[in-house]
Give the backbone structure.
Amino acid sequence: MTFGQVLLVAVLAVPALGAVAVAAIPRDRAARLVGTAAAALTLLAAVPLVFGGRGWVAWSADAPAVRPWHQLDLQWVPGLELRFHLGVDGISWPLVVLTALLTLLCCAYTMWRVPGGGSGRALVALLLVVEVGILGTFLALDLVLFFLFFEVVLLPMYAIIAGWGGTDRRRAARKFALYTLFGSVLLLVGVYVVVAAAGTADVVALTGGAGMSRGTQLAAFTLLAVAFAVKSPLWPLHSWLPDAHTQAPTVGSVVLAGVLLKMGTYGLIRVAVGVAPEGARWAAPALGVLAVAAILVGSLVCLAQSDVKRLIAYSSVGHMGFVLLGVATLTTTGIQAALIGNVAHGVITGLLFFLAGAVKDRTGTGALAELSGLRETAPRLAGLLAFAAIASLGLPGLAGFWGEAFAVIAAVQVGGPLWTTLGVLAAVGGALTAAYFLRLLRQVTHNRPSPAVGQVGPGLAGAELTAWVPLVLLALAIGLAPALVLGVAEAPVDALIGVVLP
C-alpha cells in the first residue's frame, strides 16, 4: 500500500477503533481523553492527504472526469461486484479536514463540560461513530458504499439529540430520524436506478452519465436531489433542522451544522450532478428558484425568531440556499462558490453554536427577550459573538463573504431574465442576512444587562478558548486567502464542469 492509501484507511479506522476503545474503558474521564486523542490522530491523518499525486485528466469518452489524489480499490462483495473504493480529491479534502477538526474540538470540549443526560464517554463514542459515517461519505467512490456510510450517521446522531438534548429532545430526535429515513429511501432507490442502468456502482466510472439514457438520468437526478435536499436541508424540506438544533447539546449542534449538513450538498455535487449531468441541466432552473426561495424565506423567518439557537438554525437554511444556487448555475464559478460556502458555513456556524451554548450555559436561557447587555458583563464573549455574526453575514475579508458573493456573480454571469432576477433576489437575501444578525447583536450585546445576563462573569474557560480560537483563525484565513479552498478544488471542478457541459 502507498502512503496515501494508508492515510485513507487510517482516517476511517482510527475514529472507529477510538469509539470501541472509549466504550470499553470504564473510567469516564479516561475514556473521554482516549476519544479526544483518537480524534486528534484522525485530523493528523487527514491533513497530509493533500500531498501526493495530483494527476488531473480532462473528461473524454475513455477517461474519467477526475482522478483522485489517492484511492484504495479493493474487492468487497465479489458476487455482487461491489468494491471497497475510497478516494480523495480537491472537492472532498476540505470537508474531510473540516469534519476531523470539528470532531476534535467537540471531543476536547467534553473534557471540560459534559451536558446532562448521560455519561461523557458514551457521548464521545457516539461523536466518533458519527465522524466515521461523515468521513466515509466524503471518501466513498462506490455508490453502495456511499449509501452505507451515509446511513451510519443516523442512529448515533439520533442518540446524541435524544440522550443529551433539551426538554423536548425526544420529539426533535424522532423528527430528525423520520425526515432522514425518508431521504434515505429515496437515495437507495436512486442508487438502484443508477447501478441497474449502468451496470456499475463506481462513482469515477459513472461520472458523466456512463451512457445512461436521458430518461434514466432525469429519474435518477430527481431521486438523488430530493434525498440530498432532506439532509442539507434545503427549503422546503428543512423543518426538522430548527427543532434538532434547538434541542441538541452544544457539541451535537456543532457537528450537525458544521459537517453533517454538508453530506447533502457534497452528494448533490459529487453524485447527483456528476452521475446524472443531463438531469442536472434539466433541473437547474427549478433548483435556482428553490435556492433563492430558501435564501429569502430563511432570512425572513430569522427576523422573527425569539431564540438564539433557532435563529442560527434557520440561518443555515439561507446559507445552504446560496450553496444550492451556486450548484444550480452549473458553472465553474458557481460550483466553487458552493464548495467554499460549505466550508465557511461549517467553520462559522460551528463557532456560532459554541458561543450560543456558552451564553445559554451562563444565563440559563436562549430567549432573546431575556438577553441584553452582554458586552457590559462579559465583553470577551460578546466580542467573539460579534465576530462570528459579522463573519456569517458575509463581511468582506471573512470566510462567509466568498460563497455568497460568488454564487450571486455566477447567477448573473449565466444571464437571461431568470438567472439575473435570481442573482438580484439572492443579493437582497444577503442584505436580510445582515439585518437579522445585527438585530441579534443589538438585542444580546447592547442595552443594559438583563437579570439573566447580570449574573454572568467576564471570564472564559481555557477549554472554551481551545475550542473557539481555531475556528476564529480559520474564518480569518479563509476570508483573507480563499485559495486555501479554491486552489485545491480548481482542477476537479473544471473537470466536472467539462462533464456537465460537454
The longest strand covers residues 70-77.
